[in-house]
Amino acid sequence: MNTYLWEDCQLVCLRKDKKPFFFYLRTTATHTPIVNSAQQTKSWKEIPGPSLWDLMKQALPGASGDLNLTDGLKLGQALYDHYGPIVKLDGFLGRPPIILLYDPEQCAQVLRSENWLPIRSGFQSLDYYRRNKRNKGNENQSNPDMTGLLTDHGETWKKFRSTVNPVLLQPKTIKLYTSIIDEVAQDMIVRTSNTITASLYLLANNQDKQDKLRAEILSITDENQKRSYLRACVKESMRIMPVVSGNIREATKEYVIFGYSIPPGIGISFMHQAMSMMEEHYPRPTEFLPERWLVKKGDPLYHGNAHPFVNQPFGFGVRSCIGRRIAELEIYTFLSRLIQNFRVEWFGPPMQTKVASINYITGPHNFIFKDA
Ligand code: HEM
């Protein structure tokens, strides 16, 4: 039987006096029940997954297992292949375990349910540093309890986020920075971000797509003209080579997922990168096909056929990435400048990535830039 749940959205309106006004909208949606007491549930401890020892063995020099700890995508996929759509990873050094989820509908239920004051655990060291080293005795720090959006939680986070939301998430406000970002892009002194490097790599290995993109860029006569193919290329790059392999929420209530009862306090990780590379969600998943973001409903490639919680490069809900608009503007500006002027090629073995809190692209960066 379905139950009704509340979904929360934070909305921002600008009043006539231009001051932002925040309110929360609560709507209903149908979902399968998260907790059903009559249901026979198993303990979360029975969720399949590798032991800590299994994982540590893989990290030792000369390890021969097939769980590659340095490649986020391969590790994520190998865990799914071994254990299925829900996997338990034991916690290190007294930390609670993390549950990995590979099912978009289950991800949706947790993310929607944890969208009031979401807790994104995993930055304890940064939090400790900011609280005990940076803030301590710092006269310029007006609130020593405030550590920043990444690390703060509860009311402290909400107050900060509500203040910066209208400035950083309004496309109109961010557009004011276009010329500054463009100057930087023209000077080519941008520290190329992961997403820019990934996009360049994928375009270098797909010359026909690069030609199509260059044709679009050269056809632009007015800066307000839509750059649909450019946007599609960036979306496709973030699907194949995202900055983060997944996202996380700390459960604040009990969930029943695939028959396992998961108590509050456990971290639940949503395996977006691995799900985004599954044929069942995106056909021909390993191919760089920006067209999938442009074709219409009815086309087998149509991106809307995938569940909306499969691919979420900027996260979800009120805690989603505050830097999204800045990042997008920087990526679009830099890529346009570069592809307009250069033909980008790649030589040698495939680009390597290394998994840490984010997916780092490690060198060598074997790009060749030729005059276009
Ligand atoms: C392509 C570039 C970027 C990607 C893919 C990205 C992705 C993400 C993701 C997945 C999250 C977690 C969201 C969630 O928990 O639901 C996040 C949070 C965040 N990002 Fe980004 N990000 C990018 C660029 C930036 C930039 C340029 C800035 C700063 C200007 C930034 C600042 C932040 C902050 C402060 C948070 C925490 C927000 C909060 O908890 O309220 N990000 N980002």
Automatic annotation (TrEMBL):
Keywords: Heme, Iron, Metal-binding, Monooxygenase, Oxidoreductase. InterPro entries: CYP11_CYP27_families, Cyt_P450, Cyt_P450_CS, Cyt_P450_E_grp-I, Cyt_P450_sf. Belongs to the cytochrome P450 family. GO terms for molecular function: heme binding; iron ion binding; monooxygenase activity; oxidoreductase activity, acting on paired donors, with incorporation or reduction of molecular oxygen. Gene3D superfamilies: Cytochrome P450. Heme binds at C321. This is CYP333B26.
